[in-house]
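dude i think i finally got it to work??
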Amino acid sequence: MATINYEYSQSFFEILNRYKFTLAISTYNSNQVFLLGTYNNKLTIDYKTIKRPMGMYSDAKSFYIGEKNSIYHFANFIAATEKLEPKDKYNACFLPLNIHNTGMIDIHEMAKGDDLYFVNTKFSCISTLKDDVSFKVYWKPWFISKLEPVDKCHLNGIALYNNKPKYATALSTTDTPLGWKKYKADGGVLIDVTENKIILDKLSMPHSPKIYANALFYLESGKGTLNVYDFKTKKTATIVKLPGFTRGLRFFDRFALVGVSKVRESATFSGLEITKLEKRVCGVWVVDIISKKIVGFFEFKEGIDEIFDITLLPYPQVAMYGLDNELVDYSYILDNEDSSISEIPKDSIQTAYSLHEKAKELYDKGEKEKAIELYKKSLEKDENFFPSLHLMGVALKDLGRLDEAEEVLLKALEKDASVAEVYNILGNIYYEKNETEKAKKYLKKAYELDKNLKEAKKLLNKINKK
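look at this
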């Protein structure tokens, strides 16, 4: 990843610290989601690599991210925070729960009401998820004759009312492949989804409609502004103008968080008002929507030029991991009905088991020394954990460390004297150490317990012939 430098106002930190949330920022060109939180009276910044992250939605339990060809559903496995270091730092732990492959549909903004709704920009519609298909069409603009993966109008933003899509933004009303590009400077529209009508037109690349405080807010990205539409007067007003391409909007209390991007000198942005700015920035700006003033900022000075979306996680410090983290293997979320008849242990054996499983993976890869170290850690958690005693003995024998293997396997038999394979391995160890009588004793016991252990019988016969 490129070198990333940033700066922020003290007021930005104070707001995050006071309201106790984590700000997530998707930066699709850098394939990163940044997490800005607070801990020990300091700003923290973490990042997660995700393929082309775009639209996001979050609440206390869920974090959805639209990426290159899928929607990732990260769930808050709150019990997993107990396993994280340092202790008591993290308030939430988001791990993958579901991944839905949508194909490359250029997922833009998301919102969750009675379903998860997302803007399917390539197909010019609002969609939902359905298990047996890539996506389910919820609504398409009346001016789109046929759904095709050609981005006809660059539908991009969504706002819910009564838990269903109510407003949307698009860069044009064209019905041809990439037709919006011809009208991007002033062909944008704000759409009433339920009434199938345009309520504002001649907008410059509108994005991010949101209903908040009984008003409809939206960004006119081509002008770098945050605007508000009054339902009663049906008039729109500019709240503030920001130094870049505005995209990504969230609210809390009296504040709006607005994502701001540097515009590229390209055909996509040519002709826009913001290209005339002498200085363009990238970051997140905090706006007081009552005083209409900028009250804080976080700015990427180097390494990040474009922000796609922002969202708020209602925790000051969030841990987030992908499928490759072992927490995913041993963390569970149960249905309320199932939880009443289930018990997920929180004692040492759960941790011993997870370390044991990781050690097995290393052993299977041929990394036996590393496997032995993890088996030891497993036994530190639970000295009576038989599977780790057994398989650590196997690994030690494989490496020729016979005395250590013997000691571990004898301990295993103290825990469970019914496992034929342990007797068989001990018999082989004593054979290699030229302790014939012990070898015969353990091989005989192994074969008595399991007649399918032909190798034990074979070695026993070999010893008896000498």
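The domain at 5-328 is CATH 2.120.10.80 (Neuraminidase).
im so relieved honestly
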